[in-house]
Amino acid sequence: MGSVIRSYRLSSVFTPTQLECPLGYCIQILGNCNGIFCMEIHDPSVHGCTIIILWNPSFRKYTRLPYLENNHIPSFGFGYDRLTRVHTMGTNVWRRTQDPPRFPYSASGKFVSGSGTLNWFTTQSIISLDLEKESYRELLYPGSDLMALLRPRITDLCVLRDCLCVVHCHSTFSDVWFMKEYGNNDSWTKFIRIQADVTSRVLYLYEDDQVLLALESSRKLGIYDSRDGTVKTTLVIQNNCGYRALEVYQETLMSPVL
């Protein structure tokens, strides 16, 4: 029996939905965009091997991607470009791009659709991969020279309202910075300070600026209200295939079939 992934559809009403992994059980979600998940799956029917699939949970269709000769994936990301793709749809062939300027610290690259880039953080900078040009660049972190001493405390990148964001954690609060104009280091803006003594992952920003959080320590979802600095628990996450399986997605009719 496959393990359970919990994903969350966001419409006018927030609705948690429990979804079953296709084929086997999920090892990790490599990314999602346009309502399609890229997932590493353990498939017991293939001699215990791991495979990578594209899956649209909206109508339960998936496709297997070609086998990767080296399927150990220390760092990953999933995105698209309308003209070219690292995996070109329909050819069943992987292509190798140039190596990044430094090894990413974060495992999961964050896709910013407006710029067509995947982004990872390191202790020195953000590594950005342009999926159309298949080239890398480095982006600077926000803040002054003082923040440069605190960069190891930058714990996460996220994408909110199609803006690249940095989450900078302190002992009793976290600052969320927006890059208003992608690629412009001077456009970093501190958007919100989450006054909560919790370790959390920022998942979604509502229209009224309330923030959906994954509370890692207590394995719950919570909504942070910036007006009074409170966190309201909305859902307790049952033990399934792991904390990394928490994702927010919007439904789409796009087919994952190559």
Fold and architecture overview:
With 258 residues, the protein is mainly β. The chain has one domain: 6 Propeller (Neuraminidase). It has one helix at 145-148; strands at 4-10, 14-20, 25-33, 36-42, 50-56, 61-64, 76-77, 108-112, 117-121, 126-130, 135-139, 154-160, 163-169, 174-179, 188-194, 200-205, 211-215, 220-225, 230-236, 247-249. The strands form five sheets. It has a five-stranded mixed β-sheet, with no helix packed on it. A hairpin with a 4-residue loop joins strand 17 (211-215) and strand 18 (220-225). Mean pLDDT is 75; it is low at 1-6, 9-13 and 240-244.
Please give a handful of descriptors for the protein shown.
258 residues, mainly beta, Neuraminidase, 5-stranded mixed β-sheet, globular
Number of separate structural domains: 1
Run of helices and strands: EEEEEEEEEEEHEEEEEEEEE
CATH architecture: 6 Propeller
Number of beta-strand segments: 20
> How would you classify the helix and strand content by structural class?
mainly beta
Q: In percent, how helical is the residue content?
A: under 10%
The biggest beta sheet, please? Answer: 5 strands, mixed
Rounded to an integer in angstroms, the radius of gyration calculated over CA atoms is 18 Å
Strands of the widest sheet, in order across it, are 7-8-9-10-11
- Give the CATH level 1 class: Mainly Beta
Shape: globular
Residue-averaged pLDDT? 75
